[in-house]
Amino acid sequence: MTIIQLPDVGVTMALVSTLQASLPDFGRIVDQHGHPATALRQLGLVHWENGRFDTAARTFAAALSLAPEDPDLWRDLASVYSASDRDELALTAIRKSLELDPLNAQSWQTLASVGDRLDDTEMAEDAYRRTIALNPEAPAAHLGLGLLLFRKKHYEEALAALRVSVALDPVNGVAHYALGHLSFIANDFAGCARAFDEAVRLALPLDPLTRQKRARALTFQAMIEGRVHEALQNYNVIAGEDREDLDIITRDAFSVLSATGHLEVAATIGRMRLAEKPHDPVRRYLLDAVLGQSMNAAPTDYIETYFDQFAPQFDSKLTDTLQYNAPRQMAQRLAAHRASFRHMLDLGCGTGLAAAELQPLGSALTGVDLSAGMLAEADKRGGYTELVKAEAVAYLAGTDNRFDLIFAADSLIYFGDLGPLMRAAAGALVPGGLFALSVELDSGDGVTLQPSGRFAHSLNHLKATTSDFVILEIIESNIRLEAGRPVPGLYVLLERR
Ligand SMILES: C[S@@+](CC[C@H](N)C(=O)[O-])C[C@H]1O[C@@H](n2cnc3c(N)ncnc32)[C@H](O)[C@@H]1O
């Protein structure tokens, strides 16, 4: 830990004499309090307020040489160190202050901001929480905690913290700004636009991306209120020079509104979009999904078109925005059962996120996918001995390979009835071979095509279609986010009988 060297008392007393001689106010304060430490603190505060951080720090250190057990002085010293980017020294000083007075909310708040600046999230979060426990009415602590949780992508908790902060201190533009972004993530579009407008009213200018978000929020909200055509007509005026392509706005409105249960509005938008491009397989299938049409699997032309378009952004969108890490979770579970395979198949391999997870378990890895775009990304990433463009069931039924592992992360969600795929998988596995898979969980009895275009499978359906297998493990877990909310799913490990 960084050490803070305080000046000798003799040096400080010489300074006090000089100050008494040159600054009458200083002399008066010394006389009033009978102790020069208080006068030095006052002088330090004046230097601090005027931005003379180095002089302020030297003055507080001088005061501390006379009163080393004063927790407020240590906190002041920490604050000026922090203000002049000397965060390690600030940390030492604020820890000393808390050692002397562990129940001071302001000192915990200072530790939290120092922790934030040092990127020590754990320390900062703990310190914000302690500040709030000691003083629940500290808006800055709720704001700091909210922003930190926002960065950690704990959106619900972040939103709650920011709402408290804004209620306690309604004139902080930064809090409204962050509240606007979090409200958008929580699909509270009216709240989002209100918060951004309040930030502007409090003289916080919005950056272009935030202005775009505000225009989207107002448009989506008008759509939710049933004014789809009016919302689209007004969009260009609301967005002004920040406007995005209307096709992107309707595409995203369709996906956000269907994911948040506004199915009628989503269907209206979906019909409009299909009328513009009647042969687009993505528009047709997603409208069918929103309308609740029944089908056995997502059509192959949808899969190819959708994933070819999505491929370049897939990794960042899935792993970052949607917090998807099924390949890692599944590979870890798998390795706990068996750690070595002769020939592995990554079914619906996509961009190859599973390759790095599977490599330690064996050297022969075949990847199969329908989308050429996704396979191209997998090829760039590497790790596969072979990449095959094929439909999954057709591949399993036709291949001469006999695998001892089939790994299907987030790809069975494009199949309704899993029966045919399970039978084909059993045929392509050696006896005793393993099948690791994930599904999104349907709380009912069967299979549901969700408005997202992905199927959800119930535990009963899974059990009914796996008679060729012994179920080794079923683990419930959130698979990813959908419109900011966790999607419940299952990680399943089967053994071929
Ligand atoms: C959500 S991605 C998951 C990719 C990868 N497994 C991962 O975990 O990142 C689903 C992948 O399954 C592929 N897919 C969907 N249905 C398929 C089918 N019937 N046959 C082959 N691949 C399919 C898609 O092309 C897409 O690459």
TrEMBL record:
Q: Which residues form the signal peptide?
A: none
Positions of TPR repeats: 37-70, 71-104, 105-138, 139-172
The protein's organism comes out as Microvirga makkahensis
Q: Which Pfam families match?
A: Methyltransf_11 (PF08241), TPR_16 (PF13432)
Q: Which UniProt keywords apply?
A: Repeat, TPR repeat
Using the record's annotation, list all stretches that form the Methyltransferase type domain.
Answer: 345-436
Q: Which SUPFAM superfamilies does the entry link to?
A: S-adenosyl-L-methionine-dependent methyltransferases, TPR-like
Q: Which domain of life is it from?
A: Bacteria
UniProt-recorded name of the protein: Tetratricopeptide repeat protein
In alphabetical order, the GO MF annotations are: S-adenosylmethionine-dependent methyltransferase activity
Alphabetical list of SMART domains matching this protein: TPR
